[in-house]
Amino acid sequence: MPEKIDLVFLRNVYHNIPNRVEYFAKLRESLKPDGRIAIVEHNPGGHFSFHRIFEHHVTRETIVEEMTKAGYSLAESIDFLPEQSFTIFSLKE
């Protein structure tokens, strides 16, 4: 039996994943029961930057909505990054 994962950490790549709800629903099989997914993603808006021009961002609200649909619960939302959201998800019980 393959080993399970404790933590998946994504930094500024969430916007590049196609079919995110399906992707993260499938990823559930690889997580330990107490495993977590941490997502750091650029917020839309703010000053001029290439990630905004090319729409390389996803709102925190969209991330929470999609991860909830994929079977996760928001465990923590950390607010110390000025231009990015930082959310941590656990498996729904």
Structure description:
With 93 residues, the protein is of the alpha+beta class. It has a domain at 17-35 and 44-73. Helices cover 24% and strands 37% of the residues. It contains three helices and four strands. It has a four-stranded mixed sheet with strand order 1-2-4-3, with helices on one face. Helix 1 links the parallel strand 1 and strand 2 (31-42). Mean pLDDT is 86; it is low at 50-54.
Average predicted local confidence, pLDDT: 86
Cα distance, first to last residue? 23 Å
Uncertain regions: pLDDT < 50 for 5+ in a row? Answer: 50-54
How many β-strands, per DSSP?
Answer: 4
Tally of alpha and pi helices = 3
What topology does this entry show?
Layout: E1 5-11, H1 20-27, E2 31-42, H2 50-53, H3 60-69, E3 72-78, E4 84-91
Please describe the structure with a list of short key phrases separated by commas or semicolons.
single chain; 93 residues; alpha+beta; four-stranded mixed beta sheet; 37% strand
In short:
The protein is α+β, with helices and mostly antiparallel strands and 93 residues long.
